[in-house]
Structures are given as C-alpha cells and as structure tokens.
Amino acid sequence: MGSNQSWVTEFILVGFQLSAEMEVLLFWIFSLLYIFSLLANGMILGLICLDPSLHNPMYFFLSHLAIIDMSYASSNVPKMLANLVNQNRTISFAPCIMQTFLYLGFAITECLILVVMSYDRFVAICHPLQYTVIMNWRVCTVLAVTSWSCGFILALVHAILLLRLPFCGPREVNHLFCEILSVLKLACGDIWINQVVILADGVYVLVGPLCLMLVSYMRIFWAVLKIQSKEGRRKAFSTCSSHLCVFGLFFGIAVVVYMVPESNQQEEQEKILSLFHSLFNPMLNPLIYSLRNAQVKGALYRALQKKRSM
C-alpha cells in the first residue's frame, strides 16, 4: 500500500449496535433471507438457461440481473453475518477496499442492466415489428458486455482514488460493510476529488438513466393505451409494472443514499437502506419477475413435470 497511503492496517465495522440476543436473532433472519435470495435467483438463472422458450433478449438480461444480485449480496452479506455473531468486527485494509470495489462494481452494473432492460421493453412495445432486428443477439451481447465493463471500470476508479488517501485513524467504519462514503469519512487527506467523482458518477449512473427510463416508460404507456386488445394491454402493463417495481426500489434507495444531502440521522438510515439493497432487493427481484410472469411460471411448471417423469 505504501507508507504514505495508509497508516491504518485494519478497520472496525460498527454495524448495528444492539444486544447480543437481538444480533443472534438478526443473524438467523438475515441468513435465511440470504439463502433464499441465492436459491431464488439461482432458480431463475437455471430456468432461463434450460428452457428454450425463455431464450430471448428480455430473459437474457434477466439472467444477468440474477447473476448480479447473487454476486452483490455475496460481496458483503457473509461478512455482515459473521460480525453479528463475532465480537471481533475488524476487517483488513485490502479486503475492505476490495469489498468497496466489488459492491460498487455490481451496483453500477445493475443500474446499467436495468436501463438496458427498459430499452428492451421500449423496443418490444413501441416498435414490435422491428424488435427482432433491433434487439438481435449481437446487440444484446454488446449491451451486456458494455454494462459490465462500465460498472467495473467506474468501480476501479473509485478504488484507486481510495488507495491514494492516507488513513491514520479513527478506525471505526460506521456501517455494515466498507461502504465508500463511510470509509471516506475516516481519511486524513483531502477527499474533494473522491466526492466530485462520486457526484459525477451519481449523475451518470443514477440521474441520467432514471430520466431516460421515465421518458421511455411514458412512451411505453402511451403505446400500451393504443393497443386495441384488452388481453394485449393487460400483458403489456403486467410486464412493465414488474420492471417499474424493480426500478423504483433500486434507484429510489440509491438516489437517497448518494444524491440526498447529509443529515444527522442519515448514517443510521443508510445502514437500513444498504441492508435493503444487499438482502431484500436481491430476494424481491426474482419474486417480482416470477410471480408476475406467466412464462417463468410456465417454465418452472415444465421443469417440475420433467423431473417427476424421470
């Protein structure tokens, strides 16, 4: 790391300051939610890979979302669970920076994948006759690779900017994991460059895509209202409402954490919101898409029938 970069060799993750009994209870609750999110996303990913009827652009991007959700949760939840049952809540400097890099990489990639999914629905509803031409597999692959590349390049920039800062104390990170804003508060040097990059990143990854998606869905709803068939309108609204639920949960929390000015109670609120992002959002995504999607439910039914007949 270099002698002028970090005088602190490890940090202490404060987390929730609760009684031992409450932390054990939270450990079991969070463990069950984490396992369920892994199983649910794994099931969605498996169905998409195995069922030919789900081999289309919409489910191609949904499979990437499932991979991101499992990876995002796995980058910080296991350490958080260990801290709930372990009084030694330290984390070394290098793993802390790696945790920051991974959660930022997966979070930014998820933002971009959600934007791509909204574009896919826009093309499917507003330009149905040209859908297969516009959203061909080459385009889908380029969009997915671009999302992943941009996500981790931006995360690498944040990690490099963190590594250039001196950390000479205090060591307590007032968060559940090494969240970038909480780590920056412990830096002894000037963090204005980091703050400017975070603000620019927020505009690029959150505000810009959010505006694009709102415009896209305004046009989508206008196009849906023009559909003559009631069944066609119902199906289109059902698909779009599922996407909007996911967008609202993810972007709403991210905007509150990174774009809203700080307040005295914000640190505790950020812990709860980050917990929602790490545990509940990865669990809700497959539920929203599977329970409200006839194709996914049909694929699950066929998979269970096939298993019974074996």
Describe this structure in words.
The protein has 310 residues and is mainly α. The protein has helices at 20-50, 57-85, 93-126, 131-134, 137-163, 180-184, 192-225, 230-258, 266-291, 294-309, and strands at 10-13, 90-92, 172-173. It has a 3-stranded mixed β-sheet. Helix 3 (93-126) packs antiparallel against helix 5 (137-163) and helix 8 packs antiparallel against helix 9 (266-291).
List keywords for this structure.
3% strand, three-stranded mixed sheet, disordered N terminus, 310 residues
Principal-axis shape equals: globular
Query: Could you state the oligomeric state of the chains shown?
Result: single chain
Number of strands: 3
Strand order, largest beta sheet = 2-1-3
Helix-strand blueprint:
Elements: E1 10-13, H1 20-50, H2 57-85, E2 90-92, H3 93-126, H4 131-134, H5 137-163, E3 172-173, H6 180-184, H7 192-225, H8 230-258, H9 266-291, H10 294-309
Parallel strand pairs: 1-3
Antiparallel strand pairs: 1-2
Short summary:
By secondary structure, the chain is mainly alpha-helical.
